[in-house]
User: Fold these one by one.
Assistant:
Number 1:
Amino acid sequence: MFFSISSLKNFATLSIALVSVAQMYSCDNNTTPGIKREDVTISQNDDQLFKKYNLDKIKLPPGFKISVYAEADNARSMCVSSNGTLFVGTRGGNKVLAITDENHDGKADKVYVVASGLNTPNGVAFKDGNLFIGTISTIYRLDNIESKLSNPPAPRVVYDKYPADKHHGPKFIAFGPDGKLYVPVGAPCNICEPGTPYASMTRINPDGTGFEIFAKGIRNSVGFAWHPLTKQLWFTDNGRDMLGDDIPGDELNNAPQAGMNFGYPYCHQGDILDPEFGKGKNCSDYTPPVKRLGAHVASLGMRFYTGNIFPAEYKNSIFIAEHGSWNRSVPVGYRVVVGKMDATGNVSDPVPFAEGWLQNATDVNGRPVDVQVLGDGSMLVSDDYKGVIYRITYIP
Ligand SMILES: [Ca+2]
Ligand SMILES: [Ca+2]
């Protein structure tokens, strides 16, 4: 079902129509996976959206511009198909969205609900025409989804044996260069020794077979990607809480092969033994992070910049979304940082790239969750606090 609107002045009509649809469907079985809700056609005024989301407050390096790509409640992890369809997982909501830019003007035109009634469908990954959805305990797939955006099939269960814990349960998922789906299993706590398969990075085949643990000692990774040249896995990991404002740092890690242990719960940020679980342990027994990302910044989504429109210095750089702190006396994060990559694969200390979602250390204007490079070289940033997806482009 679509609602076509041609200008902002008709937005009130759209809102009324959507309320009507919500009421119309409110008797449906909302908790059954696959029940379809509503699709929306977007046509809002760029300037109005720029003002609505206070984008004048966002600071970027010279030449970069930010705009609104799409409004999407609870927008979390993103993935994009080779045709340019953007898929968006949600947290707080129970839906998975597909967003298209049909006239290729850098602004979304349609938002489709391709799945609903799911248990925190935070993760999305796309492979060979099929969309994979990562919920807390179950991986689903929607086959040949791009030909069925307005009439999606019910999600099929791929694998349903991940733990059901809500604490660090929401999942980021992605396909590696080996064709396997990588699925982290967070620690179900701030700090504990939870046993297998917790605090690990797992992987499975696209048909749900072949479960194995790829890496251990990872507290809660909500973002990872493979270097476009070395094909090695890089991932962010959120450091433990309650050791004060400034330690331990979140981590940017590199896992060039299977079987590595990144320290949790024994050693944090490569050199701090845990006061409780670190007794009798040695940090040198674990792989340290490549970079520390600051305590409590909540480093979530990360991607390598593989596009061609940003200046050459950004090629293959790592962009990281910092969702922002919840328990630090002076809040930090709420920005996108970039670590530049040199020709030999060394990454520089991440520096702010897009910031201003936190004003005066108290006024939260948005919380970046994930970054995603589009085929046209622009970069999207999802924000679950404001329910919006931004687009950053470079116009020299
Ligand atoms: Ca468009
Ligand atoms: Ca670690």
Number 2:
Amino acid sequence: MAYIKLLKTRRDNVPTVRKGKYQDIYQDKRWKNIVREKKRMNPLCERCESNNKVVPLTEIHHIIPFDWGTTSEEVESLAFDLDNTKSVCNECHDIEHELLNKNNTKEIWKNHKL
Ligand SMILES: [Zn+2]
Ligand SMILES: [Zn+2]
């Protein structure tokens, strides 16, 4: 019984609606504007640049990942905030995400919000 219950709970937790929502974010006009602005303002990987390397941006990273938002309003305000984005190259993007995990950024961010 407990096993079935667990399965059910897990299935209920699969964020199907929210997943659709994330795909929408990258289709959203507001996101496309951010990409355009970012490419204009920071055409180089910001992380490489601070290490005195010139590498063109290949991806736009969210400093606070928008999927941490718990409501659709919060998700959107994180996703479409230019100040919450960083121009990165592939390599630095991996590093940024490693740092997010390593530095416990989610906990810090959640506590800061409260
Ligand atoms: Zn880089
Ligand atoms: Zn990222």
